[in-house]
């Protein structure tokens, strides 16, 4: 244990000491043998793209082998933590903004500044803001951006046609927390009870709904309402923290947040959205496929899943325009980070550098599962979608119009999640009023004192 | 004990016995090593860690009784104890009755090893697979269980999503998995009961019910006590079913104690606090095992 840490610290010190010492820190390749690097990611649908990158990289660097390993999201972070302790962690891994603060504050990630400086790597090729997300509170850089995502509304085309809603109408909906605006009208219209009565028609039986206008999919892991409610709260002028990244004061006591959640909960009371109990279980995309939901708010990384459904033709609409006069979408970006205890920092850096390069990100763009971080590469993804007749401007407009807000990066994400998940479930299920967030907010802010 | 004269010293261990002790040690060694490395040492270390502030990734810092003080005031911890207790009561209550019934049935009605084998089938499937299959089958919107309830005119139930249903559902899923195994353990106990006792009872004109309550149950007590101790301890440690289905939700209704320990350790990196909870769980389990063995007089049998 202490041994691991000493080694990790020594390597970290070694890497920050300056470019000259870098090669001295590296081992493995120097003696002519081949080096094997382990690389982890969680999304199986992205694996083919990254395997192609790995093959290209190996062809150019015959002395380095890349072993791409996919671990499911649910146990990715537990596995990584255990790996970090038992020295079996991957050399390089896909990193998430919600989790990296835990690792950075414990010196487990290799700072990349000395490498970036030595190789004179440009940081302005990435979509604006993505590279800065990975700069820790200590001013060091701990990851290179690989992709970005935004939130949109996936809708069932046949159901929208039946309800008389066109793509244009769905793309220009407005929302407010008082009556939900035209957005709630559309949700009500798309809700159908067992007798075929729509949510906005007299005689609608909210206790016996066949198709919900909107599907809520709460996750047991805290994700700041990324795909559930964050776009409404932000379009209502709310920001989750005093500053981002590295905020130390949360704003779940803000009325703009609480009235948004009150409205969201109201959809359940009106029968337009399944209750907390009813949404537990099979994933939202499957409920959408089964015709239980007409619309689902979800991330751009799910585009392939929704659009690829066999029996349902899906369309994508942007998130609604809120009281601020603008749409909003959380902007999240993944990066590749290097484990500070790796035996091969130099080789790991070469691989990370390649993953963040236009060469690899163009490949990822061609595979168009996610939007790569480099502008020209995500434009490739957009074209590939267009080739298939899929319009992804619902996502890309957010980036082009600057209507995104960053995923909140803060310390103590685990403890914050433990407080917020039950609190949120209590409010959504009606056990607690929205005002209960004020107390929870105090508890969260106390974590930073 | 030295006694003068030619009388042999009776306390001297005979040569063959000394030799046997050596052999016994060799046979014991693997289990003993396993016990020391995987039980005794982790227990001691866990005890030590419960008095520290430790995040696994940096060295532990001694913090005295801080973790225990925090424990006393932690509502989530007390709630998790309560949730676990509810789970154990439902799980063990139903499981013991069902398993006992099954054991008596296979004891009295069949000698078929195929039927005994079938009983054991659910136990051969991994916990996680069982949990996931039931999770999908009991889904509110798409599950076959609710579909079937619909045919007979019941409303759909959100088995895993409704705070009132989640714990009973998880408890019953595990009853389904473990009942065959438990029945087999009890069945083994039934076979040790002398057949003559049954014949005598039959001759005296006792009915099946009377035989069960007056003969089977009392004579089965030591085995039942052992089975109960084992299953109750196992039941308190419920984790996997929760981890792959509800993950503690909704609203902490399934945040059982083991899952809370896991949560504190691996999502909040609070291994010191997690160890303190684990120590409390250890004490609870030790207390329960001791009380059960005492109350059920597991060491004695009515059969002589």
What does this structure look like?
The complex is a heterodimer of chains A (449) and B (304). Chain A has 449 residues and is of the alpha/beta class. Chain A has helices at 2-16, 19-25, 47-60, 73-85, 100-104, 113-119, 157-163, 167-170, 181-190, 230-235, 255-269, 276-279, 284-289, 303-307, 345-355, 358-367, 375-387, 393-401, 413-428, 436-446, and strands spanning 35-41, 64-70, 92-95, 144-149, 151-156, 192-193, 209-215, 293-299, 314-317, 329-338, 371-372, 404-406. The two termini of chain A are 29 Å apart. Chain A is globular and about 75 Å long. Chain B is an all-alpha fold and 304 residues long. Chain B has one domain: MetI-like fold (Orthogonal Bundle). Chain B contains 12 helices and 2 strands. In chain B, strands 1-2 form a two-stranded antiparallel sheet. In chain B, strand 1 and strand 2 form a beta hairpin. In chain B, helix 2 crosses helix 12 (271-295) and helix 4 packs antiparallel against helix 7 (163-191). Chains A and B meet through helix 4, helix 12 and helix 19 of A and loops of B.
